[in-house]
Amino acid sequence: MAIRPTQGAVRSGASSAPPKNRAPLAPQPYRLLPTGAIKPVGWLRRQLQIQADGMGGHLDETWPDVGPNSGWLGGTGESWERGPYFLDGLLPLAWQLDSAPLKAKAQRFLDWTLDHPWPNGMIGPRSNDDWWPRMVMLKVLTQYHELTGDARVIPVMTRYFHHQLEALPGRPLRDWGKFRWQDEVASIVWLYNRTGDAKLLELARLLQRQGYDWQGLFADYPYRTKTTLAAIGMDRPDVPGEPPQGLRDPALSVHGVNNAQALKVSPIWSLISGSAKDRAAFHRQIDALDRYHGLPIGLYSADEHLAGRSPSQGLELCAIVEALYSLEHALAITGDPAIGDRIERIAYNALPATFTDDMWAHQYDQQPNQIRCSRAKGPWTTNGREANLFGLEPHFGCCTANFHQGWPRLTASLWMASEDGGLVAAIHAPCEVTTTVADVPVRIREETDYPFRETIAIHVDPARPARFPIHLRIPVWAQTVAVRVNGAAAPEAKPGSFARIERDWKAGDRIDIALTSSVRTVAGFHGARTVEQGPLVFALPVAERWEKWRPRGLTADWEVHPAGSWAYGLAPDARFHRIERSVGPVPFSRRDPPVALVTEGRSVSNWPEVDGSAAPPPEVAIAKGTAERLVLIPYGAPKLRVAAFPGVGES
């Protein structure tokens, strides 16, 4: 299928710099580069190719919800969020891999959406008028315009926003849209910076007034324990004629995905309000989630509602990818380097953990201490018995459609533009960047096996000599940092900061970053300790026995049962020996991990399995037997694992 030409539009695509915020929007220290400016190389490209070869590139061939009868292709099939969700990952993936077949798949959805607006300016299927799925499609359209400059996009978006401004007073936000209004404001800001249409800011303020008050919720946060059905009103039957209990405010305010998307509320709204207080509210929000529901993987438990700090609780895949997207915006708007550390912790641990190696199956929920994936009851409050199976659409199909944005959106956020006219190495991974700085075309190549290694080489190649700054995020965990430019030492760079290097850059310049870190053990729930080094969390792989439960077209649904022991604890003075191998075809591989930590542990007798899951780690572990050799590997590699270990001493 041929890609539609841009019809004479001025291309705003991958080679251009992103526009600065128009007045009265507040300035921000960093800005995301246009979609397509960053291409994956090295292990990251291999990971994206795995996604393209798996469900990410073939979902429409095996799942009717995004197949040829999709409502977002003019059919009578699923017409709500799944088409836009699928496209949100498929579109950047197609261009990052320069895949003609994937581009053609995405183009069908885009052409139908752009060529079939309603007479009043509404977009999407006529079978529903819910604002929420349009919020996802607007995000897709912004990326598509950055990639192609298609002249249809800005008029269609403008007409839609003008229609919504008129319609919202009589048809206000509800349920999902009410709690995710900030996602649309991000698209409004994008369009305002390109057109200056004052009505867009009027619409943003109306969305904020109608949307849920997330800042108010976290001002004195009430949800400090595992969610119960009674606490959110889901312990009684639904009332005919009223919204289901699960769609009312109490339930939606502790919904894991809503909270993930809400991480961008305060930063995004601060662009409209100009308030430093709004911008700072982000930290109050994420600190509360960490304190009361934090897991060892950079996010909170939510299976599917907030569930406390036990590492036996789960986390939904949609929450992982949506949190990454929110945090990428938060990093750009606040300039806080700690957000970059959190993004890497989530992306290099939680994200790969929830997929099979070939990305043909995924989980709805993952658990840090995950010792069985079965149809057992599990520790969930509101999820069902399929929640942690691997398959096509375990429990709910939202993650089946939405997981695709995780790796491509991370790739698109690795580098950013800075307000002082430079570039920012915000998140570290192997990539190539093509952009312009001060009207000079610049190509950046970042060569690294990070996060499996701690050295990075950045090649800077401007088309002609040019002076501009480059900001380098230095992870907070770094014990030593050495930055060199063309072999000469650069000014001191401090962990947990952005190191700024401004100079006259010329083709062939090179920046080398050498970091060091030691193994850390971090105490968590019941004193259980997580083993970390650099951005990686390490876990004990539990021997796995996979059982196919049912075929699902091109893929299948699977249970995974333990085929060995899992209840081990670590001594407080445990020592670790690091082993490194080359990064193979599957970067997060259980069979051939690129890095491992060898240590010793002891079996724990009072740590049972309950309802198909590991019980919460015992506060006082009873060890039995002698010390055994344990090999820990990156958390994202094994599908059965223990990542939070009780402490054990001598017998």
Structure report:
The protein is an alpha+beta fold. Helices cover 32% and strands 22% of the residues. It contains 18 helices and 26 strands. The strands form six sheets. Strands 15, 16, 17, 20, 21, 22, 25 and 26 form an eight-stranded antiparallel sheet that branches. Strands 2-7-8-9-14-11-12 form a seven-stranded antiparallel sheet. A five-stranded mixed sheet has the order 1-5-6-10-13. Helix 3 packs across helix 18 (406-412). The longest helix has 18 residues, at 131-148. The radius of gyration is 24 Å and the shape is globular. The model is unreliable at 1-14 (pLDDT under 50).
What's this model, at a glance?
This protein has 18 helices and 26 strands.
Low-confidence stretches: 1-14
What's the gyration radius in Å? 24 Å
- The rounded distance between the terminal residues' Cα atoms is 69 Å
Number of discrete helical segments: 18
Shape: globular
Number of strands: 26
Indicate the proportion of strand residues: 15-25%
The biggest beta sheet, please?
8 strands, antiparallel
Q: Roughly what percent helix?
A: 25-40%
What class would the helix/strand composition place it in?
alpha+beta
Mean pLDDT: 95
Key attributes of the depicted protein:
alpha+beta
Helices and strands in order, then pairings?
Elements: E1 30-32, E2 38-40, H1 42-53, H2 55-62, H3 82-96, H4 100-115, H5 131-148, H6 153-167, H7 175-179, H8 181-195, H9 198-210, H10 214-219, H11 249-253, H12 256-262, H13 265-273, H14 276-293, E3 315-316, H15 317-334, H16 337-353, E4 365-366, H17 398-402, H18 406-412, E5 415-418, E6 423-425, E7 431-437, E8 440-448, E9 455-462, E10 466-474, E11 480-485, E12 488-489, E13 497-505, E14 509-516, E15 520-523, E16 529-533, E17 536-541, E18 544-552, E19 555-562, E20 568-570, E21 577-580, E22 595-604, E23 609-610, E24 613-614, E25 623-634, E26 641-642
Helix pairs in contact: 1-2, 3-4, 3-5, 3-18, 5-8, 6-9, 8-9, 8-13, 12-15, 13-14, 13-15, 15-16, 15-18
